[in-house]
Please model this.
Amino acid sequence: MIVISSPFVVANETKIVQSLFEEGLSLFHIRKPDFSELEMVKSILQIKTEYRNKLVLHNYHHLAEDFGIEKLHFSEKERKSNLNDPARFSKPCRSKSTSTHSVEDFNSLENDFDYAFLSPVFKSISKENYHPKIDLFEALKSKTNSKTKVIALGGIDIENIQKTLENGFDDVALLGSIWNHKNPLKQFKLCQKIAHSYSQSQV
Model:
């Protein structure tokens, strides 16, 4: 299960993130589009060194090497710009991810990406008036890209995690369901329990 940071400043955010890691969070995407480079550096420095390998940078990719971060995320815009530039994903990293908004786009991904977000699956919790235009569960039946894991994003919460995994998604990403909740850690643990229960039922 993946958690994406709120794009805004959150009270006690670092403390919450450390608690999420302690509870078994596998990946934390740092997406702060309005942060300056200095703010980003300060944010990374607050995360314990032992958890840096679970961080994924959305911007300021050049900072990754300095902080031992091996995972980078490329927005849809970044991915589609300079398509003929072979060096556009050349930053040294162990894992690359990206964002997609249609199954057609997901199917066309190069093999560079370990996983990709596909959104919005449900009406967004964190963004107003952001909801699916088509049924992504139905669309996912035409998925042909088997080399990239497809991660559900958008409106994912305790009510629909199991349904999402049952309908072909490899994993889920949480954003609004965590940061809009009065107790983010408790909410995460509930979501994690549902996801783990589903995974065990498939063994």
The two ends are 17 Å apart (CA to CA). The mean pLDDT is 92.
